[in-house]
Design goal:
Blueprint: E1 2-3, E2 8-10, E3 13-14, E4 18-20, E5 25-27, E6 30-31, E7 35-37, E8 42-49, E9 52-53, E10 58-66, E11 69-70
Parallel strand pairs: 1-4, 2-5, 3-6, 4-7, 5-8, 6-8, 7-9, 8-10, 9-11
Length: 90
Amino acid sequence: MEIGAGTVVKNSVVRGPAVIGRDCVVENCFIGPFTAVGDSCRLYNVSLEHSVILEGCEIKDVQRIEEPTGEERPGLPRRGQPPGAAHVFG
């Protein structure tokens, strides 16, 4: 497991192998294995695994994400996502 400089992980579980980039905020999250989170991401109340989230993404209040790829700077909707929803940006 690798967590970049300036990253704050609060009230969260990170289960590796996982990489979280620099200057991120991870709060009330589960970051599962085989996940990479790019620099300057903001994750709040999210459960994800087997995922690649690219630089600058903000994701809030999503129950479960598996195998998406996040393009720079998009955000996922806060509500209305079914459990196990997968989103692909790119």
